[in-house]
Amino acid sequence: MKMKIYLFFKKITNLLLDLLFPIKCIGCKINDEILCENCIQKISLNEREIENIKAVFSYQDTLIKNSIWELKYHGKRYLGEKLGQLLYNHFIEDISEMRMDVLGRSIYVIPIPISNKKTKTRGYNQSMMIAKGFCNSEKSGALELKNGIVYKKIDTLPQAKITNKKRRLENVKGVFEIKNEEKIKGRTFIIIDDVVTTGGTMNEIMKILKKAGAKKVYGFAVAH
User: Fold this and answer.
1) Could you tell me if residue 10 is inside a domain?
2) DSSP helix/strand/coil, 108
3) Which residues pair with 53 in a beta bridge?
């Protein structure tokens, strides 16, 4: 009951803040743009491949870091959709190749799941917001958002709080599970995340999807 009251007042507070403080660009503060085209052009591409996962930007880029921070901790969920669009635009050629490979079937897009506890506290999953923007950018309908196929069954310590690589990998081992395995076999998947460091979380999900019969699994992240 207390959590429901908290979430209700949190939503009201966010609505009031949006009314009192209209949307401004994270970078230059121009009105009515959460991330304007001028600022987007200033972000340097810094693609990196980590354990079969492709990440587009460096987290050290001030604009990217601030955008992800505002998305995760200050309720700016619409920033997620903008970041999803940037992710799609960067990988548009990769997606075109995938579309040719799946022979008319849709490509399933999965956001990295977070625990129910964290979802209730934050009010949403930031990777889900990015995945929405990513899928909505594909006008052919070839990308299909699938939020319920993989879920997090164990609430673990946040990866960002663990600095040791070995401990990070151990922290995510066995914490994810698949729902509706019959939907996995022969399908192509794209997993979406905000920030990837060691790649442990995404690779754990890749592993269980392949074990369940997925044809191909790709990992895309906004930053590294």
Assistant:
1) no
2) strand
3) 50, 219
